[in-house]
Design the sequence.
């Protein structure tokens, strides 16, 4: 789509004062998908030269905001970590064409803050944290679950950008389980649930997304019972936080989230799934 209100596109490497009507441009798959009448200037991040993926000395993994879905998918297929399958599972949750995969970025998916954003699900499920950078160069870090505050609502200050997401080494060593549900065969996620089991201390976590307006991550020191898990989800997610749109009613989303959560609990605690 032509953005006929945009008067200028500037390189983000040239530090210029932020002004009303500015917007960061990553892959552009969302920006150019619908009218953006409030935008007057695009600030292009594509030439920043950030490594798409980088290991840290402590074994944690940094995913640059400009990392494309294609780059992440290729990396995940050779990732020497127990949680590696989760990367491809979440990439496939896009159900998008190769053209979108080659342009869409991890940072763009998080900054859109849409409930069905699979990169939100992935990074929240692996206890990721966002590195945010302001116009003055100052940085701050906060969990992905605190970055996405609601449907399309993010904790981003004016002119601030998402630089990267860090996934801790401990999360990459976890056993994982993935479940996704949609009303249609090739439809948007109506519920996406991720479970992890930490081999170090036996703790269990469950992340509910797509069904809710924002991601919710629940942590248990020991694997919960079915009743404990169900109660924890209902105690954590308020009735108005189950998402409501054409892709699923709140009651259906809650039902699917609870169903998928129980499947994950059984899988990760090695219980026999009843038929």
Sequence:
């Amino acid at each position: 789509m032509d953005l006929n209100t945009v008067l200028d596109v500037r390189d983000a490497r040239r530090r210029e004062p932020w002004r009303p009507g500015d917007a960061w441009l990553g892959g552009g798959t969302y920006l150019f998908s619908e009218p953006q009448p409030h935008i007057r200037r695009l600030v292009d991040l594509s030439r920043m030269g950030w490594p798409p993926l980088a290991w840290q000395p402590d074994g944690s993994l940094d995913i640059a905001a400009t990392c494309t879905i294609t780059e992440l998918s290729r990396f995940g297929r050779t990732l020497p970590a127990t949680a590696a399958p989760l990367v491809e599972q979440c990439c496939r949750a896009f159900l998008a064409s190769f053209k979108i995969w080659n342009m869409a970025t991890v940072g763009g998916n998080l900054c859109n803050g849409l409930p069905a954003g699979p990169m939100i699900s992935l990074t929240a499920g692996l206890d990721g944290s966002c590195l945010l950078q302001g116009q003055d160069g100052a940085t701050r870090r906060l969990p992905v679950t605190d970055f996405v505050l609601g449907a399309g609502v993010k904790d981003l200050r004016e002119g601030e950008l998402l630089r990267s997401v860090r996934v801790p080494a401990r999360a990459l060593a976890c056993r994982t389980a993935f479940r996704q549900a949609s009303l249609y065969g090739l439809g948007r996620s109506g519920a996406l649930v991720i479970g992890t089991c930490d081999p170090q201390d036996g703790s269990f976590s469950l992340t509910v997304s797509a069904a809710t307006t924002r991601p919710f991550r629940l942590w248990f020191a020991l694997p919960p019972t079915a009743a404990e898990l169900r109660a924890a989800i209902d105690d954590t997610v308020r009735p108005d936080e189950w998402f409501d749109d054409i892709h699923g009613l709140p009651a259906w989303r809650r039902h699917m989230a609870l169903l998928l959560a129980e499947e994950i609990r059984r899988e990760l605690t090695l219980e026999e799934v009843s038929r």
In short: Confidence is low (pLDDT under 50) at residues 271-275. The radius of gyration is 19 Å. The first strand starts at residue 8 and ends at 11.
